[in-house]
Amino acid sequence: MQFKSVCLALSFGELIPEPEEPSFAAENYAISFCAREQAHLSVFMAAPNLRLPSAGFVPLTHALVDEINAERYAHAEEAQKRITNAAAIAGVTVEFQIVQQSYTETNQCLAAAARTSDIVIVSRPTEGLSLDRDLTEAMLFASGRPVLVIPANWVRGAEFRNIMIGWDGGARAARAVGDAMPFLLRAEKVEIVCVSPDSEKSMRGADLAAHLARHCKSVTVTEIPVQHGNVAKALASHAAMGKMDLMVIGAYAHPKLLQMVLGGVTSGMLSEAELPVLLSY
Prior knowledge:
Elements: E1 5-11, H1 25-37, E2 40-46, H2 59-90, E3 94-99, H3 103-114, E4 119-123, H4 131-142, E5 147-150, E6 162-166, H5 171-179, H6 181-186, E7 189-196, H7 206-213, E8 219-225, H8 231-241, E9 246-250, E10 253-256, E11 259-262, H9 264-272, E12 277-280
Parallel strand pairs: 1-2, 1-4, 2-3, 4-5, 6-7, 6-9, 7-8, 9-12
Antiparallel strand pairs: 5-12, 10-11
C-alpha cells in the first residue's frame, strides 16, 4: 500500500493563546511526508464557535464571543496561506476546508472528512485541558484511520529509517503494525520493544519478529523494564536513546460518560514521546 491521500487536521480553538512561539511542526511534517510519498494533502482546520448561553443577553459578552470566533477563523486563514506557500515550494498539491461549528460538530465533521484519507496527521496535544486532545481523540476513535501525532519540537521531517514498535501482543498493536507496514518495509532497522513488569523474559515479540523478518530488512526484539510503573515513560525513554524516527503503538481507550477517552498508556505516550507516534485503534 502507498499513502496517496493525507489528511492534516489542525485545531484553532484555544481560548488563551499559547505563551510560547507557535509550532508548525505538524504542518512541516505533513508537507515533507506528502513530498516524499508524492501524495495529495487535504488540510481540515477546526475553528470551533465559542457559544455562551448568556452572550445573547449581555452585549459586551456577545461582542467578546464574536471577537474570539473571528480570531480563530483568522488564525486558520493565516495557516492556509502559510501551508499553501510551503506546499507550492515542495511541489505538493493541497486543498483546504475551515470548519466553524460547535466544538462537537467540528470534531465530528473533521473525523468524517478524514475517513477518505490513507492517514491522518495531527499535532501532539499540549499539557492540560486542550482542544488539540479532543481533536486527536476524535480522529483516533471516529475516523477509522491511523493517526500520526507530531510533537511540537520535531524538526527532522518525515523519516523512516529507524522504527520502533511498542508491542504488547494485543489486537490494537497488531492493527498498528499493519497500518505501519509501508514504513516498516523501507526501514533500515525495526525494533520490537516489549515492556516487562518484572525481571522475567517473556519474549512476547518473538512471533511478531518472525513475521516481520519476512518483510523487513532488519528486525530485533528488546525487552525493557517498566519505569516506576510507567510503561509510556519506559517506551519514550528507549525511543529517545535509540534516536528513532517513528514509534508505532496501538491506541487504547476506556469509556467515559458518552464518549471514549484515551487510555493511560496511550495518553502517557502523547505526553512523553518526543518523536512522531503512529497510533491505530
